[in-house]
From TrEMBL:
Gene3D superfamilies: Aspartate Aminotransferase, domain 1 (3.90.1150.10), Type I PLP-dependent aspartate aminotransferase-like (Major domain) (3.40.640.10). One of its GO terms (molecular function) is transaminase activity. InterPro entries: Aminotrans_3 (IPR005814), PyrdxlP-dep_Trfase (IPR015424), PyrdxlP-dep_Trfase_major (IPR015421), PyrdxlP-dep_Trfase_small (IPR015422). It comes from Duganella fentianensis. Belongs to the class-III pyridoxal-phosphate-dependent aminotransferase family. Its cofactor is pyridoxal 5'-phosphate. This is Aminotransferase class III-fold pyridoxal phosphate-dependent enzyme. Signal peptide: none annotated. Keywords: Aminotransferase, Pyridoxal phosphate, Transferase.
């Protein structure tokens, strides 16, 4: 998808794209060979098809990653501002997590029984997020699925509400968007054999009247939301939005589930804790174990009573919640180390200051060149967007996406040893990122913009 952006010379942009692709291919012969080899036995030539969504002609193979840097198979070193799209938000292989998992690797990986780390991890989650009861999963996708199942059982209501353009992993129920004001199942969702719109309601973020109207029927179990939309490009809540939205949700007997998988960049207790959003349930995935696959979900005491009652009164058998590897010993050891020693207030303070430096630097480049672009920052997460002011809902955010332009900028930066997130223009800093790293990124961004004009 491409919509020409004011001020850019698109003919020069296409020439720059061709030049950068040729440069990438010339400097990465080992990755090229490995990509060809991978094509013999992997669907789409990669371990997961998302790995083809980068701007590169073929996948870049990573040899090793540590802190804010990684090295590819051809020996090039990169400063990583993608950080596994939040999975490594606190850097690759944080020493405390590496040491804890090394110790645990000799003591067992999984037993489908509690480990000694389980109770301390749950206690720390309760302290940090203000919710007293917790459970565990292997990914935020699973955690969100489990929460939806629990809440439907606890409330006796079947429907959920999400926001247009939302991101909650691969949960089937949330792949519904507004198209010309009508709830429509996303065309990209593969293999879906029943209509998701029967049980999923979708409204625009920041639209209180639409939220009120959607919940007035009294059949929505919960609203599942990121406190800041992140995956379609960042969409911030308007002043007073969440305060009013919470009142509407509770007045209609629905529950609020906050997915902090991306917005945990906002602080040790996430965006909700920092901004006074009182969720009934909360999900955190990706970064909570320092990059080890795991996720957590917590709930209020009042909701926990309803959930436990639903389980105790249900017939015997599989609840559809949990897997045999959930809360395995290896993941619990990683989470305990990460929560206690890595996700600290001091680490967040450092990342916030660095992200502010990055945001200011990007704004400076945009202003110098007179581009109608903007920059949004949410804690350690920064993003530049191809519009003069930040979008206020998913429809506006979708309209400004420009994958061709993104690919040119991303590949230009990659060829200069700087990696940013492939799906949009998101950048993360971690405790290992330096001020020099930020300055180098801002300078390269400026050079790329100059080449596009």
């Amino acid at each position: 998808m491409h919509t020409p952006r004011t001020g850019l010379n698109w003919q020069r942009a296409q020439a720059l794209a061709a030049s950068e692709r040729a440069s990438y291919m010339a400097r990465n012969p080992v990755s090229a060979g490995l990509a060809q080899q991978a094509g013999e036995h992997m669907l789409f030539g990669v371990p997961m098809h998302w790995m083809n969504d980068w701007s590169t002609p073929f996948a870049l193979t990573v040899a090793e990653a540590n802190g804010a840097r990684f090295r590819d198979a051809d020996g090039h070193e990169y400063t990583d501002f993608c950080l596994g799209d939040t999975g490594a938000m606190f850097g690759h292989a944080p020493p405390a997590v590496a040491q804890a998992t090394a110790r645990q690797s000799a003591r067992g990986y999984t037993a489908m029984l509690p480990s000694e780390d389980a109770a301390p991890v749950a206690a720390e989650l309760a302290r940090r997020f203000g919710l007293p009861y917790w459970q565990f999963a292997l990914s935020a996708s699973d955690a969100n699925r489990f929460v939806l199942r629990w809440l439907r059982a606890a409330t006796g209501r079947s429907k959920i509400l999400v926001f247009n353009g939302c991101y909650h992993g691969t949960v089937d129920d949330v792949f519904v968007d507004l198209v010309d004001g009508v709830a429509t199942q996303r065309d990209s969702l593969l293999g879906q054999v029943y209509s998701l719109t029967e049980q999923t309601v979708v409204v625009e973020f920041n639209d209180l009247a639409a939220l009120e109207a959607a919940l007035a029927k009294g059949d929505v179990a919960c609203v599942l939301a990121e406190p800041v939309m992140t995956n379609i490009g960042m969409v911030l809540p308007q002043p007073g939005y969440w305060e009013a939205a919470q009142e509407i949700i509770r007045r209609h007997g629905s529950l609020l589930v906050i997915d902090e998988t991306h917005t945990i960049s906002s602080g040790p207790g996430g965006y909700a804790r920092a901004h006074g959003i009182a969720a009934d349930a909360l999900v955190v995935g990706k970064p909570v174990g320092g990059g080890i696959p795991c996720a957590v979900y917590g709930m209020t005491a009042a909701l926990a009573v309803r959930v436990e009652q639903a389980k105790r009164t249900a017939p015997a058998g599989h609840s559809g919640v949990g897997t045999t590897l959930s809360a395995n010993m290896f993941a619990m050891a990683a989470m305990r180390a990460n929560l206690e020693q890595v996700m600290t207030p001091a680490a967040y303070d450092y990342m916030f200051a660095l992200a502010a430096q990055l945001a200011d630097g990007l704004r400076g480049v945009i202003a110098r060149h007179g581009l109608p672009w903007c920059v949004t920052q949410v804690g350690a997460r920064t993003e530049f967007q191809f519009c003069p002011v930040p979008p206020v809902n998913g429809t506006q955010a979708q309209a400004i996406l420009d994958s061709e332009l993104e690919h040119i900028i991303h590949l230009y930066l990659l060829n200069r040893g700087l990696l940013i997130t492939p799906f949009h223009n998101m950048l993360l800093v971690c405790p290992s990122t330096t001020g020099d790293d930020v300055q180098r990124l801002v300078a390269a961004f400026g050079e790329c913009v100059q080449a596009l004009l």
